[in-house]
Every structure is written in C-alpha cells, then in structure tokens.
Amino acid sequence: MPAEDDNSSTVSSVDLSRAVSHALRHEPWLYELELDDEGWTPVDQLIAALREKGGRWTSVDRVSLERMLETATKPRHERDGERIRALYGHSLTGRIRRVPTTPPATLFHGTAPESWTTIRTDGLLPMGRQYVHLSADRETATSVGLRKSPNPIILLVDAATAAETGLPFYQGNHLVWLADTVPARYLHAPDQRL
C-alpha cells in the first residue's frame, strides 16, 4: 500500500479522491479490499485501509469521505448505504458488471489526431480499461482530448443509433458514459477529412 509521509494533519479531498480511486479502480488488493462483481466494498473497510497508511491518513473518517463525495467536481465514486464503489475507470482484470442505460442521442470522445486513422477502421476499444470512456458534452471530451494531444479531435458518437441496434451503453456519471466498444460506423470526426 502506498505510504504517505506528508506532515500536514489532514488529507485533502483531492488526495482522498485519488487514494480512493486507486483502491477501488486499480489495486484493491494493496488495501486488502474485496470488491464484489459490481465493484462495491464496505465503507468501513475502505476507511480502515486508508487509515493504515499512517501519518495524516489516520484522520480519514466518514465525515472526510462524505465531504470528498459531496464536493467532487467530477463524481468518480458513489456510496450506497454502507458500501462504496468507483463509478468508472477500472483497470482490474475481473470485469465490473454494469446495467445498460439509454444514452443521450450524441456522445463525444476526445482523442489525438494521429489516433483517428486506427479508430476510423477499428472503432473505439477499451485500450487497457474495462470500457470505452465517452463524454456527455463537447467540453468534457475536449478536456479529455487535451490529455492526449495539444490539438485533439472530438469524435461525435451516434449513440442513439448504436443503442437502437443493440450496442449497450452504461452511465458512469453525468459527464461520463461507458461502452464495451464503439464500432467505427457510429463515429464521425467533423473536423477531419474522411
């Protein structure tokens, strides 16, 4: 489990969110957490695991966890009673089960221009994650795309047609949607010559 030696007395909501994401998305075994097939784990076990990091992490409690959940600008986790899970972004080998949901008519995906050549043939693939990540609006897709390129392209995803033909979509949060894959026929890059 990653150790912390920061001397401040409390953990910021940003640092707490990062640690919770690491524990619930990527390496729960480092925290000795067991996730069920939908990614849930008991809140008390998560808090105990974080507190075991020592130092300022001993200040983590339900209040700090609730504050982190309530103040997040991008919801990444959800609590349901006495359990908590990450909403999306899992890189675990065991697949987190999702319930298909009707998506907005159009979704967006920000990517590097050089990726378009492959995407226009192969479509969008999870690329090391469990699901393809899509954005509910152009602004979020642009923000994601800027992590990949200083001049990202924004792909339009015809989610309505894809869903009508049986492609499942899953809601991660109000800004993030997920899909198993998105075939190229449902993608359009309006700023690129096709």
TrEMBL record:
One of its GO terms (molecular function) is NAD+ poly-ADP-ribosyltransferase activity. InterPro entries: Ptrans_KptA/Tpt1, RNA_2'-PTrans_C, RNA_2'-PTrans_KptA, RNA_2'-PTrans_N. Belongs to the KptA/TPT1 family. HAMAP family: KptA (MF_00299). Removes the 2'-phosphate from RNA via an intermediate in which the phosphate is ADP-ribosylated by NAD followed by a presumed transesterification to release the RNA and generate ADP-ribose 1''-2''-cyclic phosphate (APPR>P). May function as an ADP-ribosylase. Transmembrane segments: none annotated. Keywords: NAD, Transferase. Its EC number is 2.7.1.-. One of its GO terms (biological process) is tRNA splicing, via endonucleolytic cleavage and ligation. The keyword Cytoplasm does not apply. The keyword Hydrolase does not apply. This is Probable RNA 2'-phosphotransferase.
